């Protein structure tokens, strides 16, 4: 009769040593002379924690914090530009310190040192510009609220996409409104034959357009990096 072999005990898979012990075992395998002159695993762990990889991670975190700060400042700048462009007096300047904006025709009175304003004549294209500029201001405020909510809650999700989309819509609205106003400049000259030129509010609207476009692209890029 054949002798029965004792049952084999199941082999246990050795646990993989963490962190510095992996590096330590690899160094042992590379040195034929054994562990002589090799640092202790705890010392090696300290060396790894101070390695260029950790420094690179710290630099990446600092760069992201700086990028978020720059994006916030850029968004606030766009809000200021849109507020001034939408609500201030100078979309079209006329001789004699008279100016037109989206809402009023204002004349500077030297005697009283005040502005005398009356409602602008209503027409379809000017109403369209008014709606587009107000819409761009609302969208920019909404996107800023979404961005601040994302930073406050630190939740991962699609909020950066929503913020970027709102900013892109803001840029489209500003561009369309400023373009409509520029196209109908001849009608303004027909009603005011004394001449004139575009005011600083019109210029601020054109400045806000590329800034809002760049801001929306940055928000979408930030979401992709999460």
From TrEMBL:
Compartments reported by the entry: Membrane
Main location, first listed in the record: membrane
Organism: Pteropus alecto (Black flying fox)
Topology relative to the membrane: Multi-pass membrane protein
Any Pfam family matching the protein: PMP22_Claudin
Its biological purpose: Probably involved in cell proliferation and cell-cell interactions.
Superkingdom, taxonomy of origin: Eukaryota
Stretches that traverse the bilayer: 66-87, 128-152, 159-183, 203-222
Name of this chain's protein: Epithelial membrane protein 3
Family: Belongs to the PMP-22/EMP/MP20 family.
GO cellular component: plasma membrane
Keywords: Glycoprotein, Membrane, Transmembrane, Transmembrane helix
């Amino acid at each position: 009769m054949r002798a029965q072999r004792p049952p084999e005990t199941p082999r246990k898979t050795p646990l993989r040593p963490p962190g510095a012990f992996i590096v330590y075992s690899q160094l042992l395998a590379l040195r034929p002379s054994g562990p002589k002159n090799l640092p202790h695993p705890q010392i090696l762990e300290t060396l790894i924690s101070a390695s260029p990889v950790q420094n690179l991670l710290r630099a990446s975190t600092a760069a992201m914090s700086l990028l978020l700060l720059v994006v916030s400042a850029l968004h606030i700048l766009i809000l200021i530009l849109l507020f001034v462009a939408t609500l201030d007096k100078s979309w079209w300047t006329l001789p004699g310190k008279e100016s037109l904006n989206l809402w009023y025709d204002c004349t500077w009175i030297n005697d009283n040192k005040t502005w005398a304003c009356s409602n602008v004549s209503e027409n379809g294209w000017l109403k369209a510009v008014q709606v587009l500029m107000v819409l761009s201001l609302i969208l920019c405020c909404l996107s800023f609220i979404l961005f601040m909510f994302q930073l406050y809650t630190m939740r991962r999700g699609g909020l950066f996409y929503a913020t970027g989309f709102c900013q892109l819509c803001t840029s489209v609205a500003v561009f369309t409104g400023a373009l409509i106003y520029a196209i109908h400049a001849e009608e303004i000259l027909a009603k005011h034959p004394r001449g004139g030129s575009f005011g600083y509010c019109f210029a601020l609207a054109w400045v806000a357009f590329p800034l809002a476009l760049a801001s929306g692209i940055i928000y979408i890029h930030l979401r992709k990096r999460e």
